[in-house]
């Protein structure tokens, strides 16, 4: 049997807990704590499945952040290459277009990084709430 207050293992139903001194003979378990297989489970009990889910959410958060930053770096490199394009004759409409589009793509790279951090934060939050 387990102590109804702290969850420590005790010898029999009517004994006092050696760890916290709680008299288990005349008390029922609190309503917010449950039983698993007929045994008392402390309030702060977490199953191994819960722990695995939390770890999975954290790994997913790290993977999302890494993928977003990696993709953003690729986009930023492409944008930098577009901004540096120069035509032979200079000052053409195409040159202006690629320069402007390259600056726009640089902004998208920043947005991708921000989204990676946001989604990573959401996954960490979900891991804590689970």
Question: How would you sum up this structure, described in words?
Answer:
With 130 residues, the protein is mostly helical. The protein has two domains: 1-45, no CATH class; 48-129. 56% of the residues lie in helices and 3% in strands. The chain has helices at residues 48-83, 93-129; strands spanning 35-36, 39-40. It has a two-stranded antiparallel ribbon with strand order 1-2. The radius of gyration is 29 Å and the shape is rod-shaped.
The number of helices is: 2
Count of extended strands: 2
**Gyration radius, to the nearest Å?**
29 Å
| Shape, per Cα inertia axes | rod-shaped
Structural classification: mainly alpha
Strand content: under 5%
The number of domains is: 2
Q: What key phrases describe this protein's structure?
A:
130 residues; mainly alpha; 2 domains; two-stranded antiparallel sheet; 2 strands
């Amino acid at each position: 049997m387990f102590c109804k207050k702290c969850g420590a293992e005790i010898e029999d139903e009517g004994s006092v807990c050696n760890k916290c001194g709680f008299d288990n003979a005349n008390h029922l378990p609190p309503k917010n704590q449950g039983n698993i297989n007929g045994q008392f489970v402390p309030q702060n009990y977490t199953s191994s499945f819960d722990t695995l889910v939390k770890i999975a959410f954290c790994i997913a958060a790290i993977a999302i952040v890494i993928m977003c930053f990696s993709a953003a770096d690729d986009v930023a490199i492409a944008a930098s290459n577009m901004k540096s394009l120069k035509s032979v004759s200079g000052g053409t409409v195409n040159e202006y277009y690629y320069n402007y589009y390259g600056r726009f793509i640089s902004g998208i790279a920043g947005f991708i990084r921000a989204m990676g951090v946001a989604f990573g934060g959401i996954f960490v939050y979900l891991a804590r709430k689970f």
